[in-house]
Structure prediction request, 55 residues.
Amino acid sequence: MIFGGMIGTTSGVAAGLAATDPKLVPYGALTATFYTGVGVLLCPSVFYLLMVYLL
Prediction:
């Protein structure tokens, strides 16, 4: 559920910025994509290594 929620953030950020100021959509989409990429790709690896180290 956590990773699915993180994947959906790009469209939500883009929609929210489009309603506020359409000129900000590319910046918000880029930021949300980077955040999603870090969260979905990096976090499971770091979490796995942390669990291996602790257990």
